[in-house]
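Give me C-alpha cells for this 633-residue protein.
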Amino acid sequence: MKNIKLNSRTTYLAMLLSAVFLGGCEDYLEQLPQDSLSEAVYFETPEQFTNAANHFYTRLGFDYGDESSDLSGNISGDPLYGQGNTITPTTDDIWEDNYSYLRAPNQLIEKAAAYTGDPSEIAEPVATAYFFRAWHHFALLKRFGGVPLATQAFSLDSEEEIMKFYGPRNSRYEVIDQIIKDLDMAIADLPSQNELGDDKQGKVTLEAAKSFKARVLLYEATWEKYVGTATDGDGTNSGAGSNKPSGYPSVTEMLAEAKKSAKEVMDSGAFELWDHRDAIGEEHLFYLFNLEDAASNPAGLTKADNKEFIFQTVYDFTLRKINQNLTHAKPVCPSRKLMDMYLCSDGLPVQHSKVFKGYDTMTSEFENRDYRLKSFVNIPLKQYWGWGSNTNGGGAQYGVAFEDSGIDYDYRYVPQLTSPGGARNVGYQGRKFTTEHKLRETREESYNYPQIRLAEVLLIYAEATCELNDGAISDSDLDISINKIRERSGVAPLTNALIAPYPDLNMLGEIRRERAIELNGENFRFDDLKRWNIAIETLNKDVCLTYIEGTEYETAENPKDPGNPIYVADAFPYGLTQTEKSTSTYSGIATTKAGALILDPSGNRNWTIKNYVDPIPTNQIELNPALVQNPGW
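Here you go.
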C-alpha cells in the first residue's frame, strides 16, 4: 500500500513542479497562477475555478510525430516503433502522465458540484475540465485500447481513495462512451471562438470541442468498421474485453455525428485556412508552422494572422520556449513514398500526370508539384537561410539577396547521400517545424503547435462523408472540404470526373492521400494506418528514398565539395531496389521502381496485430493486479 501511495504522489507532484504555463497570447501567459498549484486552490470563487482550469493547459506539449512511419525518411528511436520492435516497458510516460493529468479536471468537476454560487459563474472552467478529461482519456485509448476510466479525484493522502482507482480495465467502448459524454458537457458551456476577447485567445472553445468530438468519432467508427474486436482480448486473460454500454452508437451513427460536428465548425466562420501565397509565394505553407513575430517570415506576419489553428499549444520566446532540438534535427523528412504521394499541379498523381517531369535531374521531381512539397522539402541546389546568428550561414535577412548577406557561406542545399548516419535527413531534408529566424538559436524556437486545425476538420468531413456513402462523395462536398486545402496548395480540385479514367484511383483512397500529405508529421500517421487496418501490410514494406540509378545522382559531383560525389554507394548497406514494388494497400499510390535507395528494408520491420495497441507497463500491473495485459505482449 505504501508503494502505491508514494508512486502516485511522486508522479503527480513531479508533473506539477515541472509544468510550464501557457495561454493564447503574451498577456494571457502572464496572468496564469504561476505561484499556486491546483492542490492549493480552494474553489470558493469563480476566479479560483478559472485559475485551476488555466492550469490544464500546461499539459499540452509540442507533439510532432510520425518518425519511422512509411512516410518518414527519419529512422530513429530505440526500440524503433515503426519497425514493430516495441518491447513491454517497465514504465510508460503516456500512461503515467495522462493519469496524473486527469486528477485536476476531476477535482474541479467535483468541487463544482459543491459550489454555492451561481453555476453560470463557473460554467466555462467546468466545461474546460470536461474537455481535458476527454482529451487525456483519448490519449490513453489510442495507445492502449480500453483502460480504467478515471472520473474521480482520489485523495493523494488516502490509500483507501487511491485503491478505488486501481481496478480492472474498461473496454474501449466504455472509454469512448465516457469521452463523448464529457465532450457533450463541454460543448454545452464553452464559448465560441467568435465570442473570445484578446485576453482569452488560446483557450478551449466550442469549436475546439466539436472538432475534437469529430476526431474521436471518426477514429472510433473506422476502428470498429475495419479492426473490430481483433485487439480487445476477452478482458479476463488478455486485453480489456469488448463490453458495450447500453445505447452505444453504431458505426453509421458515429460517422454521421462526426460529419455533423465537422460541418458545424466549418460553418461557424471562426477559423480560416492559412493562405498567404500572394504575399510569400509557393512556399507560404512553410511559415504556418514556424510563425512567431514579424521577423519569422518575409511578409511580416505574426501569430495573430494565423486563423487556422483551432486548438494549440502556445509558446512564447520570453515565457515559454519549445526547448526541443527541432530545427537542428529536422524531424519531418519524407520517404520515397511520400514524395510520390504529393500530387502534381493538375491534381493527378505522378504515375498519371502529364505535367510530371520525372526523376532524371535532382530538381525535376519538384516541378509542377504541390506547394506543400515545395514548402516542406528542400529542393537540391536551391539557397535556403539557416537560423540564429550563424548556423548554416545564419538566419533570414528578408529582402536581402543571399550573396549580399555579409556572411561567407554557400547557402545552397546539397542532399546528404554519403552516409546513412543516424538514418536522419538522408536523401531528402524536411523543413516542417523548422525556423529560419535570425534571433532563434537551437531550442529557442517559440512557434505554436497545432493540436487541432481547420484543415483536419475539412478532412474529417470528407472522410466521414465518403465512408457513409460506401466510398462515394459528391463534387459539392469535395468543394467545401478538401478542395479548399488543394486550392491553397496549388493543386487542381479533386472531382469525380478527374479520377474516372484511372481504374486504380478511388475517392476514399484519394481522401486518405490528402490526409497523409496534409497532416504529415503531426502525429496522425500510425493511428490512421491502424484504424484503417492497413498498418501491418503498409509498415512492413521497404522504406526507400531518392532514385539513384538512371538519374543525375549517379554521377553528380558535390558543388560545395568539388571533386567529390554527392552519392557514395558503398556507404549504404541495403543498396538500391532491384525490382518495382508496391508501396501501399491502395493501388493509386505510385509504386517504387528499381534504383531507389533503401533506408530500411522490409526484413527489419515486424508489425503484427499486437502492435495496434501498446503493452501496459509492467510496473502498473504490479501496482494493480486487476490490470490484464494486451494480447500478444
